[in-house]
Design a protein that fits this description.
Number of strands: 4
Distance between the termini: 23 Å
Largest sheet: 4 strands, mixed
Structural class: alpha+beta
Shape: globular
Strand content: 15-25%
Number of helices: 3
CATH class: Alpha Beta
Length: 110
């Protein structure tokens, strides 16, 4: 779904994007967008806490978000995007999650 170069994997990268990035909120997601200025592919990170649901629900939400982000590519280089799922994302249809991700990426990455 989302290739390795497009994933945030280090905790320090997550922290930097959340603390220094622009934040966009909605009823199902909070999205932090940071333009690092580096020449590398756009990277996505996901935070899905236990408040969202049990492990099955959290993994389903994470897979849906990864698919929604993969559909946004290609994006400008050097952008880190961290998506925090809120409890309402557990019951939201994929189309609503996709629309939320599109809206946040459009506002932050363009």
């Amino acid at each position: 779904m989302l290739a390795r170069p497009h994933r945030l994997v280090r905790g320090s990268d997550y922290r930097t994007a959340v603390r220094r990035g622009r934040r966009y909120g909605g009823p199902r997601l909070i999205v932090s967008v940071l333009d690092t200025g580096e020449t590398r592919p756009t990277r996505f990170g996901f935070i899905v806490s236990k408040q969202v649901g049990n492990a099955v629900v959290r993994n389903t939400v994470r897979r849906r978000l990864k698919d929604a982000c993969a559909r946004q590519l290609p994006l400008p280089e050097g952008i880190d995007i961290v998506i925090r799922a809120l409890p309402a994302s557990a019951t939201a249809p994929f189309a609503e999650l996709l629309a939320d991700v599109e809206r946040a990426v459009e506002r932050g990455a363009v």
